[in-house]
Amino acid sequence: MKYPVKIFSQGPRIIELNWPEIISEDVLMEIIVLKNSIENQWHLNITSIYHSYQVLSIQLKEGAPTAEFIAWVKSEIQHPLESHQLPQRWVWTVPVCYDPEVAPSQSKYLEEKNMDLDTLVALHTSQSFLLYFYGFLPGFMYLGGLPEPLHIKRKKIPDRKISQGSVAIGGSQTGIYPVDSPGGWYVVGKTPVLIFENGKINLPFNPGDKIQFAAISQQRYMEIQEGSIHHWEKEPYFG
Length: 239
Fold this sequence. Notes:
By secondary structure, this protein is α+β, with helices and mostly antiparallel strands. It has 5 helices and 16 strands. The two termini are 18 Å apart.
């Protein structure tokens, strides 16, 4: 690995791997590659495995050979990352309606930022966002790469309810609320794409993929909601 990785035992069956405290695409790819290798080689011994920006946490099953696993990990992190180890990655286009009638609370953000709607839309759709991991709520994407002019402090008093599909900004991040939830982020738009469908997460996006928001009209928003047109597209990403 390019970056130093520290290994900690959080109890007899929980192993935590820590990368330097930076938010980086290179760090993310090292985490993903090692996570995939662990799942391939040790799936029979793993209860759960998940990651955040800099941490990969593995819970082993009772009776798993912990010492052997740690020795294997120590060996793996000594090797440089090879291009053939990288997973297939995609840029996904997600439609977002920025019409004030669809996202009426958007006005709060524009007022706080002293920004007009056209500038918000232009900046928010100007680049793709790297999906680092899921957390906070099932299906809630932590996306990196928000343009600095869009940054805003989170609300001091969170809203009691932000509706599902709301595209919001908080701090230096943007994301989509997968279900109705309390939240302290500012809503700037809404996607008609259902993240939860029939009680299951309806997302094909994987950490390492990128999300590109595309502005759509209120009419197109309604069409997608009604299921009359396809709702997202993808193309290969060669990062």
